[in-house]
Each structure stands twice: as C-alpha cells, then as structure tokens.
Amino acid sequence: MIDTHTHIYGAEFAQDIDLVVRRAIEANCKNIVLPATNEGSIDAVDALREKYPDVCKAMYGLHPTDIEPERWEEQLDNILSRIQMGADKIVGVGEIGLDLHYGDETIEAQRVAFEKQLELARDLGKPVSMHIRDAYDEFWPIISKFEKDDVSGSLHCFSGTIEDAERALGMFPHLVLGVGGTLTYKKSTLPEIIKRVPIQRIVIETDAPYLAPVPLRGKRNEPSYLTHVIDMLSDIYEISREKVEKITDENACRVFSLK
Predict the structure, then answer these.
(1) For 15-22, which contacts have Cβ atoms below 8 Å and span 24 or more sequence positions?
(2) Contact status, residue 207 vs residue 3, Cβ threshold 8 Å
(3) Does the predicted model carry a pTM greater than 0.85?
(4) 193 φ, ψ to 5°?
(5) Is the separation of the CB atoms in 116 and 132 below 8 Å?
(6) pLDDT digits (tens, 9 = 90+) for 125-156
(7) pLDDT value, residue 41
(8) What distances in angstroms separate CA 237 from CA 9, 27, 125, 255, one per listed residue?
(9) Quick check: 91 and 255 in contact, CB under 8 A?
C-alpha cells in the first residue's frame, strides 16, 4: 500500500518516528508521501526523506491555513523558489489549496498562492496534492483556468459532494480522490460518494497525525493504519482487499510517478 499524504515528519512523531516507519514497512507500506505545508516544514520533510530514501518521498507547498497575512507574498516567493530548486527531489507540489473553514481573512492570498503553485506544478510537470475545505465555490474559478492535461494529482482528504467529484474528475483525467480515515466514520457521507467513483480514480492516505480510522479514531494516525481504509474500500467495491491494495498502489504510482 502507499500513503499518498501524511505528515509524520511533524513534532507529534519526534519521539518514535523510527518505530512508525518500521510499522509502516511491516504493514507493506511501500511509499510514504510527505507534503510540506510551509517553509519550515520543508526542512523536516527533507530530513525524513534523506533518512528513509527508499520509502519517504517529498512534496513542497504552502498550505492555505499556513499563510501569514503580514508576509504571505514573501512566504509564497520562498516556497516557489524552493519548489524550483528542489524539483529533482520532489514527487509533487503540495500541500496547496483553499480553506474557508476558519474564516476568509486570507482568502485573497490563498487564491494567489494556490494559482501560482498550480502554474509552477504545470510548468515543472509535477502532480499536486490539493486541500479544498469548505471552499469549492472558490476552487472552480481558479481550476477552470487550466487545461485538462495541466493538472494531475489528488484532491486530498476529499470532502466535497458527488457533483464536485464528478466535475473535477471529468475535467482532469489525471486527477484522483484521496481518501483516508473519514471513510470509516459512522456518520460519513463519503462511502456513498466513493461508490459512484471508479476505483481507478482513488488513492489512499492517512493525513497523519489526523483522522485515524475506526477502530482507532481519536488516536494519533500513522501509515500502518491504512489497512483499515483498505478494508472499508474492499467492502464498498465488493472486491478483495488484495485487489484494492493492488489497484490503489497502481493509481498512486501512475499519478505521482512512484516505483
């Protein structure tokens, strides 16, 4: 299996990161994709990638909720520069996107940052990991500026409607939905959406340390817990968990150019 979006480089894992990676490998996790969220986290991502180069893969990006209102332009310039300089070391651009869950104070900066990072990803031929939370109305005018082959990657931790899913996947043939622990939650509407999406357009992720799946909900999430997401997808698609793992691995390798 492949964790296409996880933050195990963070402080939450400082005391036992080696054990976390070992458990992931023992659970047959072949690749762990680490999206940065700001300037500082790029260094943490690089450190873990360098320690485990066969397993950990890097992405660089500026997350919408990490935008600092007083210096966002400097922030963005720094991130864009790091992406360009590190293009040979990263498998994609992320975590980028739009987030109105906590208010719209930085929405203008978010729009600019999102579009410029999409443009750079297109120019470098890199996929993106997109965080869109309570912001699809803002998302469509920006993403619609791009041609169908300009955007590849994942709509990470997908939280939109079936209409959002069908529209995005229809517009961009190289885009997939990232699904994780929320798929297993009792009140989640995601299983009904996923039933209507071909499994060839699905990748799995943890978003660790957040969103641990049932029966581990409330605990710190980690890549080895993806087995519970695979079990849920096996039930949804009514195929074996081995087939789910094989197909989602193939999807991740295709989209993010992983081995």
Answers:
(1) 17/48, 20/222, 20/223, 20/224, 21/52, 21/55, 21/56
(2) no
(3) yes
(4) -70, -45
(5) no
(6) 999 999 999 999 999 999 999 999 999 999 99
(7) 97
(8) 32, 22, 32, 21
(9) no
